[in-house]
Amino acid sequence: MPRLLTRFVLSEVLRWYAAGLALFLSLLMTDALSSTVAQLLTYHPPLWKAAAAFGAILPSILSKALVAAVPFAILLAFSRMQRDNEFKAILAAGIRPLNLVWPLALPFAVVAAFAFWNEGTLVPAGLKNWDKAWYEIYDQPMLPPTQEQYTFAPPGALYYAGRVQTTPDGASANLTGVLVQRGDETLTASQGTWDTRAHTWTLQTPWVTRPGQPPRQSTQPVTVPQADTLRPPLEEARKTSNAELRASLSRPDLQPSQRRDYAFQLARRVADPFTPLVFALAAGALGLLIRNRAAAFAAVVVFIVAFYALWITVPNLAKAGAFEPTLAAWLPNLAFLLLAGVLAWRLR
Q1: How far apart are CA 284 and CA 340, in angstroms?
Q2: Is 16 helix (H, G, I), strand (E, B) or coil?
Q3: How far apart are CA 31 and CA 43, in angstroms?
Q4: How far apart are CA 342 and CA 348, in angstroms?
């Protein structure tokens, strides 16, 4: 294909891409502002605090806009070329339609590289800072890190806590919903504490159950030995950096659902940056079949909604074990890559 034609197609698409990126950034920022305006009016934060909050969420919004702008740019650019009969002139010159699609891979490969860095570095840090910024707006300290459904089962014993809330110094923790079973004795209490230096759990006035005896409530706290290590609670997967995700996957206390969630998030941060490239191929092939701008706008909506519906469904399927985490992360891209292949076959 002539280089002049390649540059023309790229300039047309990139012009629309810049417009689409600005449009989707504006829409997503407006949505974020509309959902938080009540809190801003209630707590009257200084301008710098509000700006810090929205600066923290910006990488996550940018990640979505980078992807959504791809089909918007290509479909509208190609519909304009269809309307002005430029494709007819290109076909009359003996150039195959698909030759117009392959050059689109280059600029959107650059977008994919930026998206990879943004997804793995800026987005997790931004989501973490988003929460911190709102606690500052509320003028409240952040909640201490917690771990749900802690279980430790050494030989002949069982230690369980519904919630482990670590203190700021990390030397102790508050326990909620505590059960300790050692031999024939079972202790249950609503509250307790974990002393990591002394390697003990202290249960506040626990109920004591032994075989052949009615349960009785102790009038004093009961301290029992506990040899496990108090590890830092797991961060929410989407707020965790890639290095932390890999380190967390090796933790022995990771629950199966948590392990699947962490593995999925790690795979998604590789899969999602490829979405602009996949969209470029699929939207490029689809754009060659669309004859007017109204159909192009409709295709943009269907394109994005179909992908997003699949994109928000697969995390729960992966966490539940219905799909292997890596396959679930790549499933939306594979579906649209298949669509690109079918459309390319039709245009061959």
Answers
A1: 8
A2: helix
A3: 19
A4: 10
In sequence order, what E strands does the chain have?
146-152, 157-166, 172-182, 185-195, 200-203, 207-209, 216-217, 222-225
Establish if 237 belongs to a structural domain: no
- Listed residues 225, 244, 279: the one ending a domain: 225
Which pTM does this prediction carry?
0.78
Domain that holds residue 81: 3-139+256-347
CA gap 347, 34 in Å, rounded: 44
Reported as a single tens digit per residue, the pLDDT across 313-323 is 999 889 888 89
Indicate whether 74 pLDDT > 80.
yes
The residues near 95 (Cβ < 8 Å, ≥ 6 apart) are 1, 5
Q: Which of 204, 225, 246 is the last residue of a domain?
A: 225
Helix, strand or coil for residue 316? helix
Domains in the chain, number:
2
> What are the tens digits of pLDDT across the range 198-208?
899 999 999 99
212/289 same-domain check: no
pLDDT on residue 143: 67
Q: For residues 248 and 283, what is the distance between their CA atoms, to the nearest angstrom? A: 38
Token pair for 258: 């948590």
Query: Residue 200 has what DSSP assignment?
Result: E
Q: Measured between alpha carbons, how far is 177 from 189 in angstroms, rounded to an integer?
A: 6
Same domain, 118 and 194: no
